[in-house]
Amino acid sequence: MSYSDFGFIEYLRSILAIATFFLIFLLFTPIILFLLFISFGKASNFVVEKIAPIMVHPVMWVSGISFNVKMHTDELASPAVFIINHSSTLDVLTLLALGLPKVRFVAKWEFQYNPIFLILGRLTGQIFIKRGKTEKAIQTLKKTHRRIKRDELSVMMAPEGSRKHPGIIGPFKKGPFRMAMDLDYPIVPIYFEGNRDLSKGGTMITKSGEVTAHIHEAIDISDWTVDNLPDHIKEVRNRYLNWAGVEEDDVRPIS
Question: Which residues, at least 6 apart from 109, have a Cβ–Cβ distance to it below 8 Å?
Fold first, then answer.
């Protein structure tokens, strides 16, 4: 997809959506800060589960995007390590729109360069990691284990690490899977269908259309070990390739 694929109306709607996004954030930030202050931080789950979806749905409406959630399981496992395919800037909106219970997001360190994201992210307990430094990222994740386990929180991660990767589904890093093993949490795969088709990826310029979050059955990891981990990661990635309609390949997991 190139910028020439977007028409005047799509550029206009996208610009209006971006303005709507920042306006809503500015309006809701004082409300969220007040709720967190009077609750001594205990309103974090309410913010993520209830307020975040309210904030992003108008942005998608302005963009002409219809967002749907399709459950492929009878029960949503919680707490769990939720994983997603990541290839579009739309992923940020669809993640927030899900409103999953007691979830915390693992995001790139650079998000904190925006003061609003820094304040809200820190106060609601989101996890920021330096993706280019594997050891640092692992240390950060390990430090959060105690808090996550104590508060029975779920974690949302993108195994591809970044939306900039080769192919439709990029190589999977080990971090999310090792974290699931350390926490003794099941892994819940979520496949975003349509995000990549509507957005080029590097900007918030999008086409109008439909996106669907497919929430699949939890994966039991009770028999996973360090030795068989690469095989299990490959199997999970092959599921995503299948959902994306891509042939299985031999791309190996990366650290």
Answer: 128, 129, 130, 131
Amino acid in the structure at residue 163: R
pTM for this structure? 0.87
Q: For domain 3-243, which architecture applies?
A: 3-Layer(aba) Sandwich (3.40)
Q: Is 222 exposed, middle or buried (0-12, 13-18, 19+ CB in 10 A)?
A: exposed
Which residues, other chains included, contact 57 with Cβ-Cβ below 8 Å and sequence gap of 6+?
A: 67, 97
Domain boundaries, the chain: 3-243
Q: 236-239: long-range contacts at Cβ-Cβ below 8 A with a sequence spacing of 24 or more?
A: 236/83, 236/159, 236/172, 236/177, 236/187, 236/189, 237/159, 237/169, 237/171, 237/172, 239/189
Q: pLDDT tens digits, residue range 135-174?
A: 666 666 677 788 888 889 999 999 987 666 667 888 998 8
Return the C-alpha torsion angle 85, 185, 77, 120, nearest 10: -60
Residue 25 Cα to chain centre, angstroms: 18
| 175 within 8 A of 157, measured Cβ to Cβ | yes
